[in-house]
């Protein structure tokens, strides 16, 4: 599948239940029927059991109808581990290639990120990978990697509360370099809507949409970001897709653009395992008090 054929909302797979997959697979099938075709996977999810179960989903839908993105996880002690992890995904999913391969985090890798991406580029040339992605790095690191090999996807935390990557200029860099920004925790698992921010309540009432629909619409149509949203509830999946069916006034998009959570903005990011909060945990901080 070509990068340009990806639907505007990705299928989140974190916490898909491998023990009740017969139920979840029906919801995943429904997601595809409504257009969703971007499938991100990680061997960290439930100790690889989610990936094992997704083999059945891929066979049900058809390999060529899905865009499959997998994560290189943190257990990289030697360069051979990169291809070893990729082969594990290919064998477990029973497929011949991966659409996008990306490192999940550099936090405990013993190999430099530039060495890793030179190896990933080699795997692209072998035909095992089509596109290259990267996740959970800062702007400086992204620029370094993009000089080694063309990056097509960036996966990072982004939502109304947590605009670190925008404030630091990384989202603008992605736009300038044809890198699709995909956002995890775009709704904070419904926790942002539970705060009942006045701006969301106002726009929800004005457009007769849920607060989550307001945020999804803003992310896709204004920010040009692809949110990754996990749901195995068919009504919620339909609601999420219907968030794309309306337009807001420019002034309303601007209100959402200007919104800043200063408590989140003040948190120090830990990029070197020294101090601060790791980027993947940023949106989780001080939840009860925000």
Strand and helix layout:
Elements: E1 10-11, H1 21-33, E2 38-41, H2 49-61, E3 67-72, H3 80-93, E4 98-103, H4 113-125, E5 129-135, H5 139-148, E6 153-157, H6 164-167, H7 170-176, E7 180-184, H8 198-207, H9 211-222, E8 226-229, H10 234-242, H11 250-258, H12 262-265
Parallel strand pairs: 1-8, 2-3, 3-4, 4-5, 5-6, 6-7, 7-8
Write a structural description:
The chain has about 290 residues and is of the alpha/beta class. The protein has a domain at about 5-190 and about 225-235: Alpha-Beta Barrel (TIM Barrel), CATH 3.20.20. Helix content is about 40%, strand content about 15%. It contains 12 helices and 8 strands. It has helices spanning about 20-35, 50-60, 80-95, 115-125, 140-150, 165, 170-175, 200-205, 210-220, 235-240, 250-260, 260-265; strands at about 10, 40, 65-70, 100-105, 130-135, 155, 180-185, 225-230. The longest helix has 14 residues, at about 80-95. The chain is globular. The mean pLDDT is about 95.
In short:
With 290 residues, the chain is an alpha/beta fold. It has twelve helices and eight strands. Helix 1 crosses helix 2 and helix 8 (198-207) packs across helix 9 (211-222).
SSE order, as H and E? EHEHEHEHEHEHHEHHEHHH
Assigned CATH class of the domain at 3-190 and 223-233: Alpha Beta
The whole-angstrom Rg is 19 Å
| Mean model confidence by pLDDT | 93
Distance between the termini: 41 Å
**Assembly status:** single chain
Number of extended strands: 8
Which stretches of 5+ consecutive residues score pLDDT under 50?
none
The CATH superfamily of the domain at 3-190 and 223-233 is known as: NADP-dependent oxidoreductase domain
State the CATH architecture of the domain at 3-190 and 223-233. Alpha-Beta Barrel
Structure annotation, total helices: 12
Helix content: 40-55%
Q: Helix/strand-derived class?
A: alpha/beta
Strand order of the largest sheet: 1-8-7-6-5-4-3-2
């Amino acid at each position: 599948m070509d990068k340009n054929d990806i639907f505007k909302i990705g299928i989140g797979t974190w916490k898909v239940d491998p023990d009740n997959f017969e139920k979840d697979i029906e919801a995943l099938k429904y997601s595809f029927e409504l257009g969703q075709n971007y499938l991100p996977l990680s061997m960290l999810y439930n100790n690889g059991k989610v990936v094992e179960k997704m083999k059945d989903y891929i066979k049900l839908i058809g390999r060529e109808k899905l865009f499959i993105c997998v994560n290189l996880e943190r257990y990289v002690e030697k360069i051979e581990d990169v291809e070893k992890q990729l082969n594990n995904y290919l064998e477990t999913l029973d497929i011949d290639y991966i659409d996008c391969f990306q490192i999940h985090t550099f936090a405990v890798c013993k190999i430099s990120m530039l060495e890793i991406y030179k190896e990933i580029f080699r795997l692209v040339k072998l035909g095992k990978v089509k596109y290259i992605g990267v996740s959970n790095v800062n702007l400086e690191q992204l620029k370094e990697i993009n000089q080694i090999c063309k990056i097509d996807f960036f996966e990072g935390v982004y939502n109304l509360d947590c605009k670190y990557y925008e404030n630091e200029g990384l989202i603008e860099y992605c736009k300038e370099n044809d890198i699709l920004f995909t956002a995890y925790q775009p709704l904070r698992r419904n926790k942002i809507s539970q705060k009942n921010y006045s701006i969301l309540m106002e726009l929800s009432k004005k457009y007769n949409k849920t607060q989550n629909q307001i945020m999804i619409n803003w992310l896709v149509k204004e920010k040009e970001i692809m949110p990754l949203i996990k749901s195995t509830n068919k009504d919620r999946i339909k609601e999420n897709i219907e968030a794309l069916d309306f337009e807001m006034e420019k002034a309303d998009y601007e209100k959402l653009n200007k919104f800043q959570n200063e408590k989140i903005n003040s948190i120090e990011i830990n990029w070197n395992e020294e101090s601060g909060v790791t980027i993947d945990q940023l949106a989780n901080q001080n939840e009860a008090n925000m």
